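USER: Please consider what follows.
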Amino acid sequence: MEKIPTFFREATNQPGLFPELMPVALAQLEACKIKGLFGYGIFNPMGPTLNMISLLEHPEAHNSFIHLRMLSPFLQTSNIFAVLPANPSKEHLLDIISIAFAQSQNSDTALVTSLPTFLLHSGCKDHFIISIFSLRRHVMKNRRVFEVQKNLRLLRQFEGKPWDRAAFETKTGLENALETLRIKSAEKSTTAPQPQTVSDEETAIVDDWLHHLTNPSHFKYEMQGFLQAWSGSIQYQNRTGIDKPAIPLDGMIKEITFFNPAFAMQLHAAIS
């Protein structure tokens, strides 16, 4: 294995989350042992996006890192956001990643911005549990159950038809945005403190949403739309004459394989 990357030496050995995402050059990852844990993404005609969470290790290091790779046709980022001891246990991984997701608010630098419409898994049950638990904690902590409920309704209404769903969302986008702002404003202006406990009804809604995202039939059609949108968004930019660097579809698939071949296998199985 190649020389240990500099961020292994420069980062603290004290386990925990970083105060903010720490950029790392993708080239440095070639010297690491990479274990892709799970991925999550959104189908969007103009901005399909995939995030992958991975564990970075090196045989000469006494620590390891949790890495976030974000891929979209015109923007890609590479960041680490937590440090762990070498060879962390599954319990330690679950704890640190789920806390990171819970603390990640909805912003441009968050682990979760738009709620995902599909999930990628490594084939490992422990990694699957981490992904489900982390997304659940994010939704509950950030009070996004209303968004989950709305998204689940649309996923079911347009099951197997992601392009029709996107068209409907575009048509009703302003109305939905105003409704979301109204609800958030009402939550902030109320004099009563917001309940910290989660109701059984809210838990059931989030669990239904997560179950839907892991449905093989849903994944198949969502991934087909995702791949079409990836190529289509690049073609659209080319037709409009906008000179904007883009990562082509085959380049994206190559990157997915780099982090975990199981991710790419799921993708190919969905479109075969």
Remarks:
- The chain is about 50% helix and 20% strand.
